[in-house]
Amino acid sequence: MLRRQLLHFGAFTLGGLPVSLVRAQGATQKKMVVVMLRGAVDGLSVVAPYGDRDYAAGRPQIALNAPGAEDGLIKLDSLFGLHPSLAMLKRHWDGGQLAFVHASGSPDPTRSHFDAQDYLESGTPGRKSTPDGWMNRLLAALPGEPAPTRAISQGNTPPRIFSGTASVASLGLGPNALQRRAIDNPQMQAGLAKLYAGDAPLSGTLRDTTEGREGMARSMASGNAMGGGGMGGGRSMDPTADAGAPSARSFAADAQRLGTLIRKDPNTQLAFTSVGGWDTHVNQGAARGQLANRLASLGEGLDALSRGLGDAYKDTVIVVVSEFGRTVRQNGNGGTDHGRGNVMWLMGGPIAGGQVLGDWPGLDKAALADGRDLAVTTDFRQVLAPVLQRHLGLSETALATVFPQSPQTWRHADKLVRA
């Protein structure tokens, strides 16, 4: 089974061991981190359209108050406000390093967590036969030389988004993510080398596993980057919605750890992590409550990620995305159900921040998808494409391999990433 895991993923082993089939040959300054919110976060609370007259009508208990009112939103513009629990991110907005794309998401209408997450991670909505994830295809298409730690997946479960033939390093969760394990024992390494001597792929995998692990350990050796606690979070009502992702409770410590590793390892260019707990069918709350608590932890984590990145933040784009949004109207349990359109977050020095982009369709009944949901007016791949091209330097040909069913160019593409 271990042999199958190594060959299939080319990237993952148990216990957070980084694996790679390529050798370090170069470094790059341009980086991207993708944070996936598993469980479908309520984008209408993250960036609330308080200026839309139909917003509050459908949410008598959970609508956020307008800016200036008690527990009110943080004003972004005349239409949108940021959830007050995300106040720690306002400095990124004011500094022009945080933007949002509203009414965005997948064109596929599924409201299944499993299918929607699969489509988001494969990059081919509506097509279940895609064998690999779009970040794995991106890794293979990136210009420049490969390296054992060019891509890092943080978490205890190999994500769909990084499945494929290109190799990815794996970083576990918690302060002991890189503690010494059996694979670090020279005798174990020698024994495995002898065992796999006649199998070139596995022999190469083993060699680069040990080299990549040693490199990550060296990068994290100084300071207290592996320490830290976390803020309050919580799990989703439906555990399958989280797909094994940790809750927001420990995200701040893990995010700062990831940012520090990216900053210290000049070879790292791509990273992925996920946070669960967003399936708020019951007692969602407004400015206070379970969603507010989780958003506060998430905001602390994103801010910690930026601090961990340090000087590298100016060359890093952080993308925050969820599989779909939630219903415009609250349900009978004071929560929201599975919806369609959501909001994408983009942070970092290369982002032309301080703006909410996208084509807002409105919340009147005639504009809603299926008469109940915020419509998707921007395909998530249209938002990612300018990041991949203008920031990471992908050609049109390479972009077509990452998103083989890519929709037409987004009309706001030139407004998102600084040239």
Automatic annotation (TrEMBL):
Residues 221-246 are annotated as: Disordered. Residues 225-235 have a biased composition (Gly residues). Pfam families: DUF1501. This is Uncharacterized protein (DUF1501 family). It comes from the Bacteria.
